[in-house]
Amino acid sequence: MSVTDSLPTIHWTEDGAERSAMWRSEAGLPPPKRVVIADDQTPADTAFRLASEGTALLWRGDFQNARQLLQAMARRVDRKPKKAPKPAASLTEAFHKHRLAQSQRARTLGMLLLPFEAGHVVPLRRAPDVHEACEQVYGQSDTPYVASMRELLGLIGAFEWRKKGIEIPALGERIHPWYGVFSPVRGEYIDLVAKEPLPSGTLAFDIGTGTGVLAALLAQRGVKRVVGTDQDARALGNARANIERLGLTGDVEIIEADLFPEGRAPLVVCNPPWVPARPSSPIEHAVFDPDSRMLRGFLNGLAAHLTPDGQGWLILSDFAEHLGLRTRDELLGWIDAAGLKVLGRSDIRPRHPKAADADDPLFAARKAEMTSLWRLAAK
């Protein structure tokens, strides 16, 4: 069965006839049940009202006008209400309200849809050539389909990042992230790994390697052999491509595994998702970890994969603690229950713009946030 055979179908009526096409959504959203045709004559207020009510708009006008319409819809979504909302009783409530608002925003803006012909061609006036950006995410396509414009713009942005790459000062090189793989734009955790004294230079495991940035950094620091693991197909491809580009294939091996590879190592590193909450799309799994599954899995399996006197480096933000989603006592309890002890901890403050944005609804938590490298060992 091909990928397109497994895609759902979207249905609509156009020119008095029933139409249908394959539906694509990287967020895993089902096809909208109500679809109307929209074009250059569709007012932004009308488009916003229909989208807010759950009616999708399949665009038949000029591509650039569609981009402007999406921007106009976004301004309406982000418009502050005339009556100030009731303040959240706690940061936990503020977080859940913020997540709900983000979800509703994404759902509304995702209602502006584009038609695609075979080969990822957008058959609209002034439409750019997007086949390469789409092919990197969707794969080859010989069938027409429909997808949201917002998702397409995300694919285009990711395509540009993948080409350009992100400069990693601690590495002295660029890392090229793929769509759907956590991008190392927050450099604090990388700096922690770059500065921490290595317990050994022989072997290290990088659990949940993502783009492979930490595996590359460890190899560059002199670790003779690094094994990076991940279970996401895109992350595995991304890490291998970065390692090859950096000329480190002789030092770093990327393998598919749910957390640990076989064997033991004197250094096991893990930078798990920091927020124990449900992701709203597959792309968010790098940030949101329901019930702290990966964090607890790493802790519970760490002692069995450390050599005598080996160290486990857990890189974790305390953002969840400030949001009331996890307590420090819970974390310390999990460490103790896993047969581990804390050897030490290095901390660093975040440098991203939101940490200084007083208008951010979670500013109090972001301002207090600290990212830490916990050095752990078996008891």
TrEMBL record:
Gene3D superfamilies: Vaccinia Virus protein VP39 (3.40.50.150). It holds the Pfam family MTS. Residues 204-278 form the Methyltransferase small domain. The keyword Methyltransferase applies. Signal peptide: none annotated. GO terms for biological process: methylation. InterPro entries: DNA_methylase_N6_adenine_CS (IPR002052), N5-glutamine_MTase (IPR050320), SAM-dependent_MTases_sf (IPR029063), Small_mtfrase_dom (IPR007848). Keywords: Methyltransferase, S-adenosyl-L-methionine, Transferase. Transmembrane segments: none annotated. GO terms for molecular function: nucleic acid binding; protein-glutamine N-methyltransferase activity. This is Methylase of polypeptide chain release factors. The lineage of its organism: Bacteria, Pseudomonadati, Pseudomonadota, Betaproteobacteria, Burkholderiales. The gene is hemK1.
